[in-house]
Amino acid sequence: xxxxxxxxxxxxxxxGPEYDLIxxxxxxxxxxxLRYRLHGSDDDGRHDLQWMKSDRVKPFSFIWCCEQxxxxxxxxxxxxxxxxxxSYRALRHGNRSRGGRKAQG
Length: 105
Fold this sequence. Notes:
mainly alpha
C-alpha cells in the first residue's frame, strides 16, 4: 500500500486535541477492521470493517474522518481493503513507533 502519514492537510481542524482524537479513532477503527478481515477475531472488528465500507457521511463516519484529516476516503478504502495484510502490518508498525498517535499505513 505504501506509506501515508496522517497530517493536518487543510481540514477545518488543522491540529490540536480534536484533530488528535479523530486521528486516534480513525487509526483504531481501520486497525481493528483489518484485523477482523484477516483473522475474524472479534465482533468489535466486524463493526469497524462495516464502518470502513460504509458510505455514510456524518460525524465520525469513515468518510467524515478521512475528510477531516485530509485524505481521499475512496483511495484510502481501496488501498486498505485491497492490501489488508500489508496495511495492517504498516499500521501496527506505525502505531508502535509513534506511540499510537499518528497513522502510517
